[in-house]
Design brief:
Strand content of chain A: 35-45%
Number of strands of chain A: 10
Radius of gyration of chain B: 20 Å
Shape of chain A: globular
Strand content of chain B: 25-35%
Structural class of chain B: alpha+beta
Distance between the termini of chain A: 31 Å
Largest sheet of chain B: 6 strands, mixed
Order of helices and strands of chain A: EEEHEEEEEHHEEH
CATH topology of one domain in chain B: Gyrase A, domain 2
CATH class of one domain in chain B: Alpha Beta
Shape of chain B: globular
CATH class of chain A: Mainly Beta
Number of domains of chain A: 1
CATH superfamily of chain A: RNA polymerase II/Efflux pump adaptor protein, barrel-sandwich hybrid domain
Strand order of the largest sheet of chain B: 11-12-13-10-4-14
Structural class of chain A: alpha+beta
Number of helices of chain B: 9
Largest sheet of chain A: 7 strands, antiparallel
Oligomer: heterodimer
Order of helices and strands of chain B: EHEEHEEHEEEHEEHEEEHEHHHEEEEEE
Number of strands of chain B: 20
CATH architecture of chain A: Beta Barrel
Number of helices of chain A: 4
CATH superfamily of one domain in chain B: Probable tRNA modification gtpase trme, domain 1
Mean pLDDT of chain A: 96
Low-confidence stretches of chain A: none
Mean pLDDT of chain B: 96
Radius of gyration of chain A: 13 Å
Strand order of the largest sheet of chain A: 5-8-9-3-2-1-10
């Protein structure tokens, strides 16, 4: 059973055992518009919760993507190099950014549930 | 860069005459030069951009400033403020020119049309009130300076623009590139010019505020036409190598540094008589210390405005003034200023751009990034 949690900066992390799959929410991709480039971390990179881990570029602007929890990057989504548009078309599926071995599961407690995030986004519009 | 006034609060921002249409089309509105303007519609910037390159896109640029100069001496008067040849501009002719200051810096760039009984000027939105004051103060004794800031301006751009517009204004097919005249479009009196800011064939249509929405709807009803916002306008003009005021040109840059010396007519070079002529003519003679160039980063990283430009050894050369992803160029593109050391670096020269603290390989690129396809008859 997987759980997905969200940050106030619109990253999601889907928890699969001790690994988290990180990307940006559907709301975030809609705000960014056409994604044309994603700069991803290298496997082995270690981040604390809230560290800048990736950059997503739309035609309009570059936006930082922060590590939702601390941990070590185990894999980056190389498909985004060829097809950055996956972030728009399938943000929580094939448009994931990187996987992270979660250093401390307690970090997850500070994130929003899917339901809370839905309310959070509703208030932004 | 420092030339834009702070954005007014939402309550005081001006609305385009076609604002209701933008809302209906699902536009994402942004504050721009005191107006709420559409940055993109539902399909997004890339689709809008590609549509302008393949078919025809309709832009609302009503925030831009339209000004008439009336009087027998209007052309001679305007020549005291710009280095372009206005006196010899044939009736119906358009000219791109620059308002310069006493140091040779650029106060604004503008389009001038000889409407026979008056000159018709289109200036930048963020500069229009300053331009008007400047024109009125310097030329008011020689000609009438009439703002027409409430008029709308629509741009129909793309390879199918002429076919579309001709259904509503058959006379538009008689216009050559950089010419314009009054004609009825869908029955509405308009000033139509064959010009634009995309590098494509197309038209700019000046129309009264009250007729603008109906006209825009008629054009959008044509199967070839899709609306496009300021986002696509920016990526299109950058691919076309065209300057954006306040970014690529401003009071700190001269026409020669900006690569716009072609706008300085031969007669004006000989005679001078425009603001900053001493400095500008000296730069024409000796070469400028820096020059606007195209920049093509390798890979996909976008070097945006403000990114430092370095030579291949890592020594500072200058800065990026515009940078984005070019949907037609299919990669990152930029323009910026570099030191010349006698001569501007040739296209292909290896340089670097500093993005997020990392120097990344790039090359000096010939402009435009995407070949112009203006109507040449």
């Amino acid at each position: 059973m997987t759980v997905t949690k969200y940050t106030e900066d619109h990253e999601y992390i889907r928890v699969e055992g001790d690994v988290g799959v990180v990307g940006i929410s559907d709301y975030a991709q809609g705000q960014l518009g056409d994604v044309v480039f994603v700069e991803l971390p290298d496997p082995g990179a270690e981040y604390a919760q809230g560290d800048e881990a990736a950059v997503v570029e739309s035609v309009k602007a570059a936006s930082e993507v922060y590590a939702p929890v601390g941990g070590e990057v185990t894999e980056a989504n190389d498909a985004l190099a060829e097809s950055p548009g996956l972030v728009n078309s399938d943000p929580t599926g094939e448009g994931w950014f990187f996987k992270l071995r979660i250093a401390d599961p307690k970090d997850l407690d500070q994130l929003m549930s899917a339901e809370d995030y839905k309310d959070y986004v509703k208030d932004l519009d | 860069m420092g030339d834009q006034p702070p954005e007014p609060t939402p309550e005081t921002r001006r609305q385009s005459p076609v604002a209701a249409l933008h809302a209906e089309l699902g536009a994402k509105m942004v504050p721009f030069a005191g107006y709420d303007m559409p940055v993109q519609y539902a399909t997004g910037i890339v689709a809008e951009h590609l549509h302008a390159r393949s078919r025809a896109a309709l832009f609302d640029v009503s925030h831009m400033g339209q000004i008439a100069l009336r009087g027998a001496d209007a052309a001679s008067a305007l020549e005291t403020l710009v280095p372009g040849d206005i006196r010899d501009l044939a009736p119906g002719g358009l000219r791109y020119s620059l308002l310069t200051d006493e140091t040779g810096g650029i106060l604004d760039d503008l389009m001038v049309t000889n409407e026979d009984d008056h000159l018709f000027l289109v200036v930048n939105a963020a500069r229009k009130h300053d331009d008007l004051a400047h024109l009125a103060q310097a030329l008011g004794a020689q000609c009438a300076v009439e703002p027409m800031f409430s008029r709308a301006l629509l741009a129909l751009q793309g390879p199918e623009a002429a076919a579309v517009l001709s259904r509503h204004a058959p006379d538009c097919l008689g216009l050559g590139f950089m010419t314009g005249r009054s004609m009825l479009v869908a029955g509405f009196p308009c000033l139509v010019s064959r010009s634009g800011y995309t590098g494509e064939d197309g038209f700019e249509i000046s129309v009264s505020a009250e007729d603008a929405e109906t006209l825009a709807r008629r054009l959008l009803a044509e199967p070839e036409v899709a609306p496009a916002g300021l986002g696509a306008r920016d990526s299109l003009r950058l691919e076309a190598g065209l300057c954006l005021y306040g970014h690529d040109i401003d009071r700190t840059t001269t026409p020669v540094e900006a690569g716009l010396a072609w706008t300085i007519a031969k007669r004006r070079r000989a005679e001078g008589g425009f603001p900053g002529a001493d400095r500008i003519l000296a730069q024409l003679r000796d070469g400028p210390a820096r020059r606007r160039v195209g920049v093509r980063p390798e890979g996909r990283v976008i070097a945006r405005e403000g990114s430092e430009i370095l030579d291949s050894q890592g020594r500072p050369l200058g800065r990026v003034t515009s940078g984005t992803f070019g949907p037609t160029a299919d990669g990152p593109i930029a323009m910026g200023y570099v030191r010349t050391d006698g001569a501007a670096p040739a296209a292909g020269t290896e340089i670097q751009v500093l993005v997020r603290g990392k120097a990344r390989p790039a090359r000096v690129a010939a402009l435009p990034f995407v070949a112009h396809r203006y109507y040449r008859g």
